[in-house]
Amino acid sequence: MSAVTDTAIAARTFDKATPHGPKPRRLTIARVGVYAFLIISAIYFLAPLWVMVVTSLKTLPEIREGFLFRWPQDLTFEPWVKAWTTACTGRDCEGIRPGFINSVKITVPSVLISILIAALNGYALSFWRFKGSGFFFGLLLFGAFVPYQVVIYPLIIFLREIGLFASLPGIIIIHTIFGMPILTLLYRNYFVALPEELFKAARVDGAGFWSAFFRIILPMSIPITIVAVILQVTGIWNDFLFGVVFAGRENMPMTVQLNNIVTTTTGVREYNVNMAATILTAAVPLAVYFFSGRFFVRGIAAGAVKG
Question: Which CATH code for domain 97-304?
């Protein structure tokens, strides 16, 4: 009886201590300042995108009137069609559609291979530490801070000697090499934060290197894998330097073909076609961030910067 009475008293006390009703929303100077800063920042970053969109939907005579922010009076999608199918990217006038296909061919295998190798590196450096693993990890991180321009010429010579310069496998190798350092850091720090008891239990049950990796570690690394995919997709898709140097004429990505469209010096400068081609080129990274941005934040919070 005493226990029941004590429980009832505690419940009433808790009920009285719990706040009821709507949360008070006071309009303070700090809140107004935060909202004002966010609104101004949003306008600042969205204004160029708005100009690109409305310009791509205007005719050239309307563009020459100079009203950048005005919605098109004569709405047209012809610049988008031309940018995709018939815009000239040098001597070829097939639009940026071939560049889109080339970018997919470059991005997909580069992302898969670099993430798999980086996950294996982080796994080995976290749970299978070998003699000199710290030095190897530091050397790998040092490679992440080497400027790309410093190693371009040696890489050209290397790919030429093995017969892969200006080829699809060559540009995939380049993106894989330069993606491994930062991805290895992400995976290594994420795996260090995992409970080591799970790995030890798997070893007690007889799991080896590959079995523990594919059955225990890899299924637990989905959050950081999403972060790695976002970083690699946006980095490789937006790359211009490696594409123009290592891809070759037959494998030019969208960014290289976009540059050829925008910087053309013959004929009429079609700003609406240029804007449409730019938006089409940036559509994939924008879609990746739009649909998986929340997972990116979760992955970072789950251990991407721990260790």
Answer: 1.10.3720.10
Report the C-alpha dihedral over residues 194, 184, 208, 202, rounded to 10 degrees: 10
Give the per-residue pLDDT at 115: 93
Q: Tell me the H-state helices in 57-167.
A: 60-63, 78-85, 97-127, 133-144, 148-161
DSSP class of residue 251 equals: G
Contacts of 176 (CB under 8 A, 6+ apart): 110, 113, 114, 117
DSSP output for 22-42: SPP----HHHHHHHHHHHHHH
Query: Which parts of the chain sit beneath pLDDT 50?
Result: 1-11, 13-17, 304-307
The CA-atom distances, in angstroms, between 243 and each of 57, 156, 208 are 29, 13, 40
At 26, list the tokens: 């006071």
- Is 91 in a helix, a strand, or coil? coil
Task: Return d(Cα 136, Cα 23) in angstroms, integer.
Answer: 54
Look up residue 163 and give its DSSP letter. T
Q: How far is CA 281 from the centre of its chain?
A: 14
**What pTM was computed for the model?**
0.80
Burial of 45 (0-12, 13-18, 19+ CB in 10 A): exposed
Q: Which of 155, 121, 158 is nearest to 141 (CA)?
A: 121
pLDDT at 25: 64
Closest listed residue to residue 143, CA positions, set 183, 109, 107, 203: 183
